[in-house]
């Protein structure tokens, strides 16, 4: 009798069994083949769609697409908020709105209070002869440390103060608390102090160990200037508030521009050092 022929797929095996998958078969490219170490056929190819370029999270699930820079949205929203408050106060001053009554009563109640020597000292912090040299020293330090663009940006912000404040003073023509003279809105001394000390803090913060102390010092100096101006009867409270909003918008733009300039400078520095030796 002739023996029953064995299947060709198992001719080399010791006994009968299931046919073995050949390496060239299509089943080697299925997901089940990943257990044998063979990746999916499309895994080794570069991604052809944005979805394929996503990074996976720690759990292995597809992550999101690379985020779009959102700093303009945050910056514009904050600047818009400050300018909205400034516009509201300016409208009240020009239209003789209902906020002027409480503002004038509060200003007259605070005028002349406190020690005159201390209030005079605080008010003088907003003088150009005091605030501008402080910013100039900070700009010189930044310039010597090769942060020259940041120094130029800070000086430009200081130059913008009179360009913004003087036309507003002429337009609003508001009378001062203890004088018949006009042109007291907004407070130029407050805006000068806020931008000068704030810009100096932005320039010096990278060079001090506790960088948070610089903006705190700028806020305290500007607050002292504002208090001195109101206590001496040089400005109404709304004059000071409007200058805080206007100077805050300028400083927000300055901070963002300066930080982006520093990031570009730091990103270019390693590339210069990685060249052939």
UniProtKB/TrEMBL annotation:
Keyword Transmembrane helix: yes
Domain of life: Bacteria
Keyword list, A-Z: Membrane, Transmembrane, Transmembrane helix
Pfam families: PAP2
Biased composition (Low complexity): 22-37
Disordered as annotated region, ranges: 1-66
Segments passing through the bilayer: 73-94, 125-144, 151-172, 184-205, 212-234, 240-258
Domain named Phosphatidic acid phosphatase type 2/haloperoxidase: residues: 151-255
SUPFAM superfamilies xrefs: Acid phosphatase/Vanadium-dependent haloperoxidase
Name listed for the protein in its UniProt record: Phosphatase PAP2 family protein
Annotated source species: Streptomyces flavovirens
Organism lineage: Bacteria, Bacillati, Actinomycetota, Actinomycetes, Kitasatosporales
């Amino acid at each position: 009798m002739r023996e029953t022929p064995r299947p060709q797929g198992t001719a080399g095996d010791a006994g009968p069994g299931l046919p073995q998958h050949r390496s060239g078969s299509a089943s080697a490219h299925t997901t089940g083949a990943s257990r044998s170490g063979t990746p999916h056929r499309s895994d080794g190819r570069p991604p052809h769609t944005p979805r394929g370029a996503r990074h996976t999270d720690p759990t292995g699930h597809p992550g999101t697409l690379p985020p779009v820079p959102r700093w303009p949205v945050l910056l514009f929203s904050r600047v818009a908020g400050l300018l909205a408050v400034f516009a509201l106060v300016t409208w009240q001053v020009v239209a003789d709105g209902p906020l002027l009554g409480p503002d004038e009563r509060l200003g007259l109640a605070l005028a002349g209070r406190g020690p005159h020597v201390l209030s005079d000292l605080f008010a003088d912090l907003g003088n150009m002869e005091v605030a501008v040299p402080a910013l100039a020293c900070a700009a010189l330090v930044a310039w010597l440390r090769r942060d020259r663009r940041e120094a130029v940006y800070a000086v430009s912000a200081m130059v913008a103060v009179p360009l913004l404040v003087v036309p507003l003073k002429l337009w609003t023509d508001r009378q001062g608390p203890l004088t018949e003279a006009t042109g007291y809105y907004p407070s130029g001394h407050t805006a000068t102090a806020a931008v000068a000390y704030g810009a100096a803090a932005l320039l010096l913060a990278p060079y001090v160990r506790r960088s948070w102390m610089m903006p705190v010092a700028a806020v305290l100096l500007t607050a002292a200037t504002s208090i001195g101006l109101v206590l001496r009867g040089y400005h109404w409270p709304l004059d000071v508030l409007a200058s805080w909003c206007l100077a805050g918008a300028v400083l927000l733009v300055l901070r963002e521009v300066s930080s982006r300039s520093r990031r570009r400078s730091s990103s270019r520095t390693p590339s210069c050092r990685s060249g052939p030796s």
